[in-house]
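Q: what sequence does this backbone want?
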């Protein structure tokens, strides 16, 4: 009989699991662990009969992005493709369209700092020469901390909470610890009313690419972010139009689906080629 694998089961695995990359070094790749963001069941409960051996696994980058990588793709949930099959994400559709190997380094909930960290690591690890960054909203930043000689990073937004019960990551920290850490970062976001932190990270990204000979294409689904990119002379791709109320959505009824991704890829493929 196939063992159930969901939020309610495999309690020992949950104790050693963190929702994002765990590393022995600071500022390593930050990617989503497991397959939670790709599961067709948006809510995990006792009715779930899905089985996936990666569900509570702490993944290595090679398990998420298989090399070689010609075009590194960076961003948030729009790039990762939450609640979509990998083949329906815009990096995968772009690969099919331009016949060049892409790597999806999107991080659900990630901001400009996460994009820069993943870009830096992708350059060092995969030797990428072309990068496409679909920058998200500006009011996001990474929570970083060390526990038991391991380094943790977690994307935080102004409304973020620790969404798991006491078991998850129990072998690294308790729920009170992570809740207080999240609260501190949310305060920093709120106080940074001009988004100075994020703007600096975006400019650092441009400088990193110029210094290392990386061809950078940038865009956003946020008009505020797009305006900042324009002001600072980024090599801009067309704006990513978020789905309207009448359009088809991903399984969470919030994020873009294959339809919107295909539309954006058709708008940018000529520029990439």
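A:
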């Amino acid at each position: 009989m196939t063992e159930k694998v969901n939020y309610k089961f495999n309690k020992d695995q949950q104790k050693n699991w963190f929702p994002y990359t765990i590393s022995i070094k600071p500022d390593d790749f930050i990617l989503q662990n497991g397959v939670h963001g790709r599961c067709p069941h948006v809510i995990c409960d006792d009715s779930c009969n899905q089985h996936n051996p990666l569900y509570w696994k702490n993944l290595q980058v090679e398990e998420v992005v298989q090399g070689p990588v010609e075009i590194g793709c960076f961003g948030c949930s729009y790039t990762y493709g939450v609640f979509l099959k990998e083949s329906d994400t815009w990096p995968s559709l772009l690969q099919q369209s331009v016949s060049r190997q892409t790597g999806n380094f999107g991080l659900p909930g990630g901001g400009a700092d996460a994009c820069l960290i993943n870009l830096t690591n992708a350059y060092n690890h995969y030797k990428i020469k072309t990068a496409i960054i679909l920058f998200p909203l500006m009011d996001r930043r990474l929570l970083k901390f060390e526990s038991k000689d391991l380094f943790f990073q977690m994307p935080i937004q102004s409304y973020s909470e620790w969404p798991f019960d006491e078991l998850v990551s129990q072998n690294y920290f308790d729920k009170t610890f992570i809740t207080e850490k999240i609260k501190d970062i949310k305060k920093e976001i709120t106080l940074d009313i001009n988004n100075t932190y994020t703007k600096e990270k975006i400019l650092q990204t441009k400088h990193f690419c110029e210094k290392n000979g990386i061809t950078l294409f940038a865009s956003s689904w946020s008009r505020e972010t797009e305006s900042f990119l324009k002001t600072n002379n980024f090599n801009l791709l067309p704006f990513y139009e978020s789905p309207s109320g009448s359009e088809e959505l991903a399984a969470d009824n919030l994020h873009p689906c294959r339809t919107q991704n295909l539309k954006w890829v058709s708008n940018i493929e000529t520029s990439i080629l």
